[in-house]
Fold:
Amino acid sequence: MMIMNAAPGSPLRVLVVEDEVKTRASLVEGFQLEGWVVVTASTGIEAVRCVNEGCFDLIVLDWMLPGCDGMEVLRQARARGHRTPVLMLTARGEVEDRVAGLDGGADDFLAKPFAFAELIARCRALLRRQVLSGATLLRCADLQLDTRARVAMRSGDEILLTPREVDVLEYMMRYQNQVVTREMLERDVWRQTKRFTSLDNVIDVQIMRLRRKVDGDRADPLIHTIRGIGYRLGKDPG
Amino acid sequence: MKRWWQTRTLRFRLALWYALGGTLLLAGFSAIIYGYVVDRMARPLDHQLRQDLTTVGQRLRVSPDGLHITWDGHEAQGGAEWNWSDPWFELWDEHGRLLRRLWPLNEAHLEKPPFAPPNGRETLSVFYVAGDLRLRVLSVPYQVPGHSSAWTLRVMRIHVPAADALRALLLIISLALPIVVVMLVLGGYWITRRWLKPLDDVVRQADRITADDLDRRLTVANPNDEIGRLAGVFNVTLDRLESSFRALDRFVADASHELRTPLTTLRSVGEVGLRRSRTVEEYREIIGSMLEEAGRLQLLTERLLELAKAEGGKATVRRQRFCLDENVAACVEELSILAENKRQKIVLETMQCAVETDPVLFHQALQNLIDNAIKYSPPEALITVSIREVGEAFTVAVADQGPGIAEENRDVIMDRFVRTDGACERGRGGFGLGLALTRAYMRILGGTLEYQPNKPQGSRFVLFLPRT
Structure:
């Protein structure tokens, strides 16, 4: 929490602990594209050393590591008083593991395989939780949404939305300029706890309608489809 | 710490107990019989002793001062001149002194003269006075007229209680006892072996069952006895084991087969994409297409795992009480947007009802059915979702006006990876796992999934859900 208040302008420092070379490389590149400074570790022992030496804003920690596993790294870090937010990655999606990890001091959990868009969204949420939860009037370009009155306006004209459309729009506006995956929408907006029957079609249709209402035939669309990943709300298509 | 017999077979231990118990029981029984016979045989003698007592009472006279003891009016003298036909008896005074012993025996030849009788009460006993001479004696208090305390009168007779017969009895017992015990041991061993033989068979059969032939079962000779029940329980365990092994096998087979398709697409799109240089837009398109395929692959793997879990009985069930109608309405509401898109109409025939089951599993099961109905119905069709109460259960039926299921396909539609009438629309979510998952979930919840043709056309899938 304290580290979060780093001087404005100084880049965020992230420690990535992951033993799989390709995954690690793609995480590093993805974080660097966000403008973050990335330090990597590939074993648990290395990770413990990094945590003790460096000062990080966020740690992305794989559970399964050679040497000592992620839980052990987390335990040691917390025992030494490091309060840095930790996001754990695990190949096991079981609830029990999740609970064990959160009890062990992890701040969030992401099961493999995951969409990078979701990882970034979670990381940002951990870094600036208050920004995501606080505001009631959300803006993006000439689109604005009053989350309390549940009224959306584009260029001063009110857009008539169904309750579900408001939910989706609010979620996308909170995550604006980031890619939102179908899994995120399914879990956070539709509150579907299992993904064994598909709401993907429902989500696609819902977004299509929302886009028709929000963008219409405008030359400056705000809702973009990112093929193979999900959707993004923002001025430019990214 | 185990005792030595606890390391032996059940059969051995049972035989051992037969032997021990049988021996003790028979020995006790024989002792009782022997004692009873001895007692019965002595009874005539006791009767004679009582007669002697009467005779003595009539013919013996004692003066009040106790100094003159007369037998038929003469001073009584024991020894050789005592008449053999007269009763034999002794007189003891209150201090335990022998006053007279009246019998025809020469006391010098006796090894052990009779000792003093207990004073003041009637007793019956046997004692030896020589190696071959045993006496049975009856002592009674004897009141001398004019005397303050009682003397003791003891009548005696030679005790020859059918000694031969008793000896024979003893011989019979001591010969029969070991024979009977041996027979008990052998018989016990034989019987236990016979009774425990099915157990040996069970052991032998169970030993032959391995992971490869889990369809074998133990033969149950008599389902009512303990061994039959054991075999029955073992068979049930085998059933469960087999079904979870089957589920695993199927998962491996399905996975290797069905995962190849998206993997092939993934590879070929990537490889073809790299064959010549393209514009950035084209590359984006190719990577996007590969990601889509990867997403499908992930979804398919997750569902296959879930199906394997559900069918193997490992899915976690969190039962709670909830309103079935609300759950169904939410499900319809969620998917209605898809129906609207095809200008289809979903009609909900509902009623208030509460159930106690896992709402998430039920929701998923129903979602699959409604999703299918929308997918397979033509535009502007009518889909009916209805809740009915049937005894202690509810049915939730989803009826559509689609093409229906051909008669020959009805048995297989609920199997995995079955897509009818070339509905091989492998596009969005069409894995052919929906009905299999729904059926597996319903089974977990103690319900069923049934297919009925809808009249005049279409399909009707009925979820049968018990109240609890």
